[in-house]
Amino acid sequence: MKKNYLLLVLIIFVSCSVFGQSQEEIKKITADYDMAKLKEREAYYRKKANVEKQKAIATAVAKGWPVYVEKEDGSILEIMKLTPDGFPIYYSTHNVNAALATRASFLNSTGSMGLNLNGQGMTVRVWDGGNVRASHTAFGGRVTVADNSSTGTANHATHVAGTMVASANPAAVKGMAPEAFARTFDWNEDLGEAISEAQMGMLISNHSYGTPITSGTSTLPSWYIGSYTYGAYEWDEAAYNAPYYLAVMSAGNDGGNNNNEDPIALGYDKLVGDKTAKNNLVVANSLDVSVGTDGTVTGNISINGSSSQGPSDDLRIKPDITGNGTNLTSTSNSSNTGTATMSGTSMASPNVAGTLILLQQHYRNLTTNFMRAATLKGLACHTADDAGLVGPDAKFGWGLLNAKKAAETLTNNGLTSWVSEENINNNQSYTMTVNSNGSTPLIASITWTDLPGAVNSGANGPNDPTPALVNDLDIRITRNGNTYYPWRLTTNPANPAIRSGDNNVDNVELIKIDAPTAGEYTITVTHKGTLVTGGQKFSLVVTGINSAFSLNPSSADVTVCSTQNATYTFNYAQSGAGTTTFSALGLPTGANATFSPSSLSANGIVTMTITGLSNVSPGEYFIGVLGSNGTETEARYKTLRVYSGTFQPIAVQSPTNGQEGLSTTVTFNWAAQANALTYHVQVSRFSDFSSLITEDYVSTNSYTISGLNEATRYYWRVIPMNNCGTVAITAAPVNNFATGNLICDANFPASNYSNAVIASVANSEASVPVTITGGYSIGDINVNVFISHTWVQDMTITLEGPAAIGSPIIILQEEACAGEDNINCIYDDAGGFPSCVGNPAISGNIAPLNSLSVLNNLPADGVWTLRVIDPYNEDGGAINNFSIDICRVVPALLTIADNPLQSSSVYPNPTQGIVNVAIPSLSEKTTITLYDLQGRAIMTKETNQVLTSFGIENLQDGVYLVNIANEQDSVTKKIVLKRN
């Protein structure tokens, strides 16, 4: 990174250990989260943020760029990372009757709806540029500074937090949720911290910062603006792994900036970084609006000229929604009673985020549960007041947030509206029939949390239209041979949206029939192609309908043992006379359902009890209650997870029972069982498992063990487990395998360096092949690499295996170290971390990012490729040398010995001083003798015990021999003493 860079500034668009939610509610939210994966991604993104910032600071120092600046107006400028094109990215604050505009005031305690929604028992999160002044009187002790509390307070952060949760103290600063709690953070490691908070049940966060197109005289490259970059991918991944979490983000204040050299259309295409993600909610900024006493907008809805326009390059509807952020008065850090008035999308975003937490509170009050993020986002977009062009557009998104209409949609769910959370599997479709009231538009929408898409690296130039969508769902409404399609933007966002066909880019799809004829309409949801994960959960919202009765779940999904019953409750309401009877849908074979009461003719609670689960195969089921009054029906679905206390034996996949000649690192694989919550894995040298080498509990159907002895037979078994019963360990099938002898004498050097040069332009790539022959089975593999390259952190280095073994890709290094130069090392699982000191910066034995041991026991023959990818501008280099060392496995052809001495083991190896000798089924006297490599006896010990231990910590580090002998046999084992 040694040339001139344009200045890229991330702007704050002017824009605790305290929890409101109970532990029980947090458990509900996170019940289906993969916590292990979330923790892994949290650690990854925290480390990534630190590394990127260190690199950016080093570059800034070298080039004389500012690292941290606090300006006279209180705004902050702080360097965070570099873009692939070499632009410095800064986070910065820059500032350009909100509750009334979004109709949040109608939900508050003084609101006309009588809902008394003030955020009681709710918690929001705020990430911003600096700390909130938590001592402000308007916060009443409800705001916690959750990190970096030693730094000073920031006016912008305090203003944003106040917009969300300040009480009326003074009256002018009252926020959207004036009794909610807030946990606040500075913007360092924001994504890693957000993933951490998601594990604690976070529902809403606000982020009033982003990347402007221009800073000073420097402008971003056109391909980067509107593109689905890694910043969008990261936040989509976080949302997908935590499906109840919705990140609310300001769109930006580049509305008047037309410096995009190649926009989709003049005056559009101004969103950057995480603003183009699919699963977040990006907020535009409107001017003040006039609202009548009934919550209806009485005047025009006008955009603030500074609000950044979309869409994304693949023509998704971005920004998503509009809030009021113009001349908004809120808390200030000037004193504990200070106030300030600011404008910008930074103010519009917390206006929306604080309002949305009230809708979650309302849903909890109605159902005892919370909405998935997709449901909340879909509800907000569905009920927004249209503004700007007819339909959605690239300035207002779906329009101005209307919390009153959203709350009414939830309140009347099943009667005059419909809100549900559904699921569609591959090759399935979802269908429901609704009755249009004939007097208001019929609107139906689906929203889903999509998997992160393919990152755009700029290779296809500006405005790449490749969809970021992964799972493509479609909604249609049909009646009397007519088909109605969802809105979608055209290639010119200055033109109105159209609704003449499917939408294949958005994960919010909405159909609006402006003047429907009263009567029945059919809503159908399908999918294109193959759903990546086999199924896709989606949220459905319908308005403009009427129904004689409603059924709404008031209990959570259920997980039970097959010896138990499953119970669900539903709130029933009806709008007129008549009787509704209840029956079950989707019951698993063998189960029965009873209802109490079996019918209702007045408002009440319906309890559905599922019995006979002992007849049901373990697994997950999507079951429902069907209400019918003779003329119409309504179905609501919940999830049932059944476990049984009776287990089937595990079906082993690899290694096969009795398999010979394996490496000293072995991966066990077995068929997953629907009835298993976890798996108990045991490995031993002895068939009776009288002594264990390892014992572990895993949630996946795979387990890897390393450090086994050569030419040794091992026994292993897997016991499925859940909370409903236990399996007798001795009843689990026992499998055995034998390791072979490792012979480390094969080196395969590269000879073709025709593509070895790493160019000094962005997105450079170099590769060098090595061909391995000899018919070897891999026992261990090391990779020798010599690469000359300035700034080693630019590189990602991979080893790609032959197609014959599935073309595995092992990441050896991913943007390690910082500004140091050159690599000359051996990638070895037994290696350490790079020192990043000197030249070469990476040398010696280095542990790869991905373990090479996954290649063990695979055939080695074929073409292996070392690949270097450098996405950054400037620094280049070359692959100067590449070779692969193979330790091949030679089967030892062991038999299962009758004499227990042949199955004895000496461990740990290497040892720091304690030696354990295990001899299975030993009953006769045995002599254990320790020798040095010169054959001199150091100690002798007699035993008739299965397990014998002794210490050698007083000896010098090195290799020793342990001889185990009795009248029948003798065996000698190596032991390595290594105390440091």
Produce a short descriptive summary.
With 980 residues, the chain is mostly beta strands.
What does this structure look like?
Helix 2 (35-63) packs antiparallel against helix 5 (190-198), helix 4 (155-165) runs parallel beside helix 7 and helix 7 runs parallel beside helix 9. The chain is 12% helix and 36% strand. Strand 31 and strand 32 (633-643) form a beta hairpin. It has a 7-stranded parallel β-sheet, sandwiched between helices. Strands 41, 42, 44, 47, 48 and 50 form a 6-stranded mixed β-sheet that branches. With 980 residues, it is mainly beta. It has 5 domains: 8-96 and 98-410, Rossmann fold, CATH 3.40.50; 549-643, Sandwich (Immunoglobulin-like), CATH 2.60.40; 652-725, Immunoglobulin-like (Sandwich); 744-890, Jelly Rolls (Sandwich); 900-977, Immunoglobulin-like (Sandwich), CATH 2.60.40.3080. Mean pLDDT is 89; it is low at 1-18.
Annotated CATH architecture of the largest domain: 3-Layer(aba) Sandwich
Cα-atom Rg, whole angstroms?
A: 32 Å
The top level CATH class name of the largest domain:
Alpha Beta
What portion of the residues fall into strands of 2 or more residues?
Answer: 35-45%
Helix content: 10-25%
Number of helices: 9
Oligomeric state: single chain
The CATH topology assignment of the largest domain is Rossmann fold
Strand order of the largest sheet: 6-7-5-8-11-12-13
- Give the termini separation: 39 Å
* Count of beta strands: 57
Biggest sheet, in brief? 7 strands, parallel
Q: Please, what is the CATH homologous superfamily of the largest domain?
A: Peptidase S8/S53 domain
